[in-house]
Amino acid sequence: MRFKLPLALVLTAGLLYPAAADASLTEFATFVGNYGVSTDGFGSTSQSGTISAEVPVGATVVAAYLYTATYGAINPAVGGTLNGSAVTYGASVPNTGVGGNLASNRADVTAIVAPVINGGLGGVYNFAITETNGSQDGEALVVVYSLPSLPVSTVGILDGFSAAGGDNTAINFSDPLDPTAAGFFADMRLGIGFSCCTAYSSATQRSNVTVNGTLMTAVAGDNDDGLDAANGSLITVGGYDDVPAPNTVVNLANYTADSERYDLSSFITTGDNSIAIITNNPSNDDNIFLAVFHVLGEAGINEPPPNSEVPEPGTLSLLAIGGAAAFRKVRGRRKAA
């Protein structure tokens, strides 16, 4: 529940916890508890193929979302099927900061995915996928699942588009982090549309990701999940089967080594209470339409962590633009206090 707050309280909250600044890639859903997440991408000019999810035995799917990335048309009439069932996508979200009429759409496919996985043998589940519009560059599948044996963690899904000039995301924790502790993890996965397929150069279609002030990669992009190096297949999604990209300076210019899945641990200092991520697209021709985070512990995405006594800084933003109805945001189940 949200309440109107005195301005002084909201300003105090903003000082204590970092929040997004003019973000276009915004929080859609957050799940805090015994959760895991699977992501995968697919693209082909044939407009049909397979997209997958990896979910352990005994897990229960709590949410599944399918994204389609588009190019070249304003508000294209997108569609398709997943495992033979029709997919109904929501409104197109255009990237207003780049050329090419780049955009994305999201569909809730929980009703299609959950019956296949729940009660299954565990492992990799394959889903047949089709598209109906040639301007669809490919798809990203995000599956969030619960399993009591998993550690308490936070899964955050951000979507929309990342402004070419740079967007900020803050993951905030109540307790200080220790990236050297056994079992620690902080995982980030990006979905990028209309990105292709040249050797690294100053003209490469690419995006930067900076974590806690350090440039982690200058070459997020390429059509890693596209089967063809052609329009209609230009998509990459950090996936369940991707090895996190090498997080060293020597690999920053290795375009093919960057899988769009990242281990953030080496960019965290013991005692940090937040992870600050900046994404931007200096080539001004890609569309970062999705970011998925999975971090150990209870965290808030662009807001204070769960059970914090401090009011959420996002409350002021809601008031400033006319109320909560302006935000499309879903809150997953949270671990009880």
Please outline the helices and strands:
Layout (H helix, E strand, L loop, with lengths): L6 H10 L8 E9 L1 E8 L5 E8 L4 E11 L9 E3 L2 E2 L6 E2 L8 E6 L1 H8 L5 E9 L4 E11 L6 E8 L6 E7 L12 E8 L13 E5 L2 E7 L14 E3 L23 E3 L10 E7 L6 E10 L2 E3 L12 H7 L9 E5 L3
Parallel strand pairs: 1-21
Antiparallel strand pairs: 1-11, 2-10, 3-9, 4-8, 4-10, 5-6, 5-9, 7-8, 11-19, 12-18, 12-20, 13-16, 13-17, 13-19, 14-15, 14-18
Radius of gyration: 19 Å
Structural class, from secondary structure content? mainly beta
Identify the overall geometry.
Answer: globular
Q: What number of structural domains do the residues give? A: 1
Number of helices: 3
Proportion of residues in β-strands: 35-45%
